[in-house]
């Protein structure tokens, strides 16, 4: 089993709970006032209130679920692999001052930066486009589309930020990026073969273990130490 000692509680899950809490606190008096003013519609108001509470931060909830499912898969890696989640890498070019990486795996055959997506739909796109398209089917069978950020472009920026940081800490190494669609209904169709592996649902562990680096990975111990420092700084 992979080393999971640096896995911390999912930040997105905490944000979901916080969002629901505030929706409940703010919405309760409004719902009560409306129910008093419109007693004949009390059940409609109550239902709408519950929808708001449980639907709060739905996107973050989906993201948290995807990361947790992916971690469950990665835990099956051998014990010479070390897992990190939600690593904040300093980046002065962003408003927050850092770039968050979903998952990082450090193993004897390299360092893997994994961008997790939890779309429950077919996704199409082109590697060079800023956005891809998610094709969804509504509860009543209606079909619609939605734009999603190009995860390959996201991942390449993340890899660059981490590589720059490690170089500054004298811990340079080759970083292998992987985009992983974790949802069981995910289907991805791109206009051409991607320059970064894009995997669906399964095969992530197998991909990592089968990866053959062009040269022996360098500074793996230093990389782990720097990632530990970043995790400690964020705690």
TrEMBL record:
What keyword terms does UniProt attach to this protein? Membrane, Transmembrane, Transmembrane helix
**Top-rank taxon:** Bacteria
Q: Which residues are in the NERD domain?
A: 62-185
Which PROSITE patterns does this one have? NERD
Q: Which residues span the membrane?
A: 19-36
Q: Is Transmembrane helix one of the keywords UniProt gives this record?
A: yes
Coiled-coil intervals? none
Does Transmembrane appear among the keywords?
A: yes
Query: Per its record, how is this protein called by name?
Result: NERD domain-containing protein
Q: Which organism is it from?
A: Idiomarina seosinensis
């Amino acid at each position: 089993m992979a080393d999971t000692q640096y896995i911390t509680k999912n930040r997105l899950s905490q944000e979901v709970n916080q969002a629901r809490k505030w929706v409940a606190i703010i919405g309760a008096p409004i719902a009560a006032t409306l129910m008093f003013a419109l007693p004949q519609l009390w059940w409609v108001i109550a239902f709408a209130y519950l929808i708001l509470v449980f639907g709060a931060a739905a996107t973050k909830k989906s993201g948290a679920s995807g990361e947790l499912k992916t971690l469950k898969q990665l835990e099956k890696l051998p014990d010479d692999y070390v897992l990190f989640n939600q690593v904040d890498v300093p980046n002065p070019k962003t408003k927050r001052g850092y770039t968050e990486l979903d998952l990082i795996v450090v193993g004897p055959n390299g360092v893997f930066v994994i961008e997790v997506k939890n779309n429950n739909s077919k996704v199409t796109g082109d590697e060079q486009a800023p956005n891809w398209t998610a094709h969804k089917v509504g509860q009543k069978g209606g079909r619609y589309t939605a734009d999603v950020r190009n995860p390959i472009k996201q991942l390449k920026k993340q890899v660059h930020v981490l590589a720059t940081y490690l170089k500054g800490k004298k811990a340079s190494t080759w970083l292998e990026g992987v985009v992983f669609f974790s949802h069981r209904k995910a289907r991805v169709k791109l206009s051409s073969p991607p320059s970064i592996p894009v995997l669906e649902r399964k095969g992530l562990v197998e991909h990592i273990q089968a990866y053959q680096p062009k040269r022996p990975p360098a500074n793996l111990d230093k990389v782990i130490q720097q990632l530990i420092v970043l995790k400690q700084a964020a705690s």
